Amino acid sequence: xxxxxxxxxxxxxxAVALIPVAAMAQTxxxxxxxxxxxxxxxxxxxxxxxxVEDYNRLSADVWYLEPLYVTDNLDNPEYTFLKxxxxxxxxxxxxxxxxxxxxxxxxxxxxxxxxxxxxxxxxDALAAGQTDSGAFTDSHGNPTATDTAWAVTALxxxxxxxxxxxxxxxxxxxYLESAMTQDGGYNDYGAQGNVxxxxxxxxxxxxxxxETAARLSEKCVAFMESCLRENGALVGRGVYDSxxxxxxxxxxxxxxxxxxxxxxxxxANVVPFLMQFQSDQGGFWYDAASMAGTxxxxxxxxxxxxxxxxxxxxxxxxxxxxxxxxxxxTVITPDPTTGGAAADDLAGAQTPPMGTxxxxxxxxxxxxxxxxxxIGAVTIPMIQKKKDGTKK
Length: 392
Description:
Elements: H1 2-48, H2 65-70, H3 97-109, H4 117-127, E1 136-137, E2 143-144, H5 145-160, H6 169-179, H7 195-207, H8 211-227, H9 245-257, H10 270-275, H11 288-291, H12 302-317, H13 321-326, H14 343-346, H15 361-387
Antiparallel strand pairs: 1-2
């Protein structure tokens, strides 16, 4: 009995301790994102204000909305330059599918009502771009896994938001099955899978229902495992087949989308590998050569920084944002006073509602174990006493 009491106390202490640990991890990721946003603003904001015809000009994109959302900066005037404007008059048919899809995703993150006619029309125009093979195409009309992944993700989210968004989901799955490389990954430009493309396709597969999508997702996870090096780097065998922060970020995004545990087990070192590239100014280096001053980039760069922020945002959420928004149990409703999403809704209202967030799975296990031990601590002595012919 004495030992049961001690064990019970230990389990309860662990359970209590895990609560602040989980919260601290989320807070730490948000701190890293804010740090990176500060670097981004200081080093790249001027490029967003260049003349339209300037080759060096950068444009706001849905890429930046997730880190802004996660850090409660969507309405921060300092970051207005990062917020994209949706062009409802644009010729969607002439766009790459991923470009049109990002407009739909922008509307989802900002909490717009998807039953508005102009948003319905945008979703319909995106869906109309699907080819007979089930694929979506780039701006040259070429079917690609990347464009298909972006389009599918956007349309699945649109459906969850109440838009009709009619398209052939099973046709898209069939195309993605045919586009999978022999090693179980994806690559728009070669026969061997790369981590970047595979990570994005994993997001799309995780939004799609059906056994085929689930099976393809499992193959992608196996591909990621085959790319894993002892130091935690994810390195594919196609384009971008080197240890770098961009591929690492997309690998993290894809693995989180597939529901993989990045805290323990097989992929426990993938996040620490990414974080070594964050500079003391907040931006992210591309690779070790760049950090050493011998690489392509001589300072933390634009691509590495925004892609790392995407991965960090998913880590702070504990799941991929796009999968979250495409999940039927996720409810996002417009705020009638602003037209945007109500704060509690966008924070991730899932069953049960009220904007509550899920409990860390590790904490659940510890609490269950503690409960079992407590019950055992009470019932075992009672049973023993009963056997001895005594009463409590």
